[in-house]
Amino acid sequence: MAASFAFLGDIILAVGGTPVTTPEELSSAIRERAIGEKVPLTFMSGGLYRTVDILLTAPPVSPAALQANKKKVGAVLQP
């Protein structure tokens, strides 16, 4: 089981050194990366700034779900 590193209410500030301030910027920063790539994720948690390396993996989805969510991006992030 993967260790938890982020919690509800944490604020993601950057992906791979690229600042993100909107959900669209976060999605774009993730889409620019390759599945299997380790990327530093910077966020604020409990008033403290933290950076952890995450591994981008493809989300487990069915072809029907992909068709229904063409405009959405998703990734499973693992520390």
Folded structure, characterized:
By secondary structure, the chain is α+β, with helices and mostly antiparallel strands. It is 19% helix and 35% strand. The protein has two helices and five strands. It has helices spanning 23-31, 63-68; strands at 11-15, 18-19, 38-45, 48-57, 76-78. A five-stranded antiparallel beta sheet has the order 2-1-3-4-5, covered by helices on one side. β3 (38-45) and β4 (48-57) form a beta hairpin. The radius of gyration is 13 Å and the shape is globular. The model has no long low-confidence stretch (mean pLDDT 78).
Task: Spell out the key features of this protein.
79 residues, alpha+beta, five-stranded antiparallel β-sheet, 19% helix
Helix content: 10-25%
> How many runs of DSSP E, i.e. beta strands?
5
Beta content: 35-45%
Q: N-to-C SSE series?
A: EEHEEHE
Mean pLDDT over all positions? 78
Tell me the major beta sheet. 5 strands, antiparallel
> Which radius of gyration do the C-alpha atoms yield?
13 Å
| Largest sheet: spatial strand order | 2-1-3-4-5
Q: Gap between N and C termini, in Å?
A: 11 Å
- Globally, the shape reads globular
Secondary structural class = alpha+beta
Per-chain topology:
Elements: E1 11-15, E2 18-19, H1 23-31, E3 38-45, E4 48-57, H2 63-68, E5 76-78
Antiparallel strand pairs: 1-2, 1-3, 3-4, 4-5
Give a brief description.
With 79 residues, the protein is α+β, with helices and mostly antiparallel strands. The protein is 19% helix and 35% strand.
